[in-house]
Write a structure and sequence with these properties.
The protein has helices spanning 12-25, 37-43, 92-106, 121-129, and strands spanning 2-6, 49-54, 57-66, 76-83, 111-117, 133-144, 147-157. It is of the alpha+beta class and 162 residues long. The protein has a single domain (2-157), classed as Gcn5-related N-acetyltransferase (GNAT) (Aminopeptidase). A seven-stranded mixed beta sheet has the order 1-2-3-4-5-7-6. The longest helix is centred in the middle third of the chain and has 15 residues, at 92-106.
């Protein structure tokens, strides 16, 4: 059974390890190392940070970060969702992302967006499963380890707020 709970600094070591595994895949993020807690904490919203727990072990996490500090964009946030790669296919990502969407709407967010490497087909499929749609494509938006990557831009608009 998978449960979704809020997470805090006390969970950071386990969250950071899952993030490290995501970085190691080479298709999850342009980050090359896990930041320290203070750096991570400063860019992610307090209201929407969740961990997936299975058999008393943290197996995934999801969080939101602001896309802009401008007031007009107060209801727009970027999604991060990571699952331990050893546990893919168990529905953990779906549970996390569905929970994140629900809680984000309760917090007044009307648009969630994600920039996903075009070759990260499992993440694209996950977002589509939860109701995100492709809205754009950014060609060679960033370079990682000598290779240029394209991003698929996806968004989910709240049906509760509109």
């Amino acid at each position: 059974m998978i449960t979704i709970q809020n997470f805090s600094k006390e969970d950071w070591d386990k969250i950071a390890e899952i993030y490290r595994k995501g970085i190691a895949t080479g298709i999850a993020t342009f980050e090359t190392k896990v930041p320290d807690w203070e750096t991570w904490d400063s860019v992610h919203l307090d209201c929407c940070r969740f961990k997936a727990v299975m058999d008393n072990k943290i197996v995934g996490w999801a969080a939101l970060s602001r896309v802009s500090s401008r007031y007009v964009y107060r209801g727009v946030a970027e999604v991060s969702v990571y699952v331990d790669p050893e546990l893919k296919g168990l529905g953990i990502g779906t549970y996390l992302l569905e929970h994140l969407v629900t809680k984000s709407e309760e917090e007044g967010f009307w648009t969630l967006q994600s920039g996903i490497f075009s070759n990260n087909t499992s993440s694209i499929a996950l977002h589509k499963k939860v109701g995100f749609r492709e809205i754009g494509y950014r060609e060679k938006i960033g370079e990682l380890n000598g290779q240029w990557y394209d991003n698929i831009i996806m968004e989910k608009r709240s049906k509760k707020i509109f």
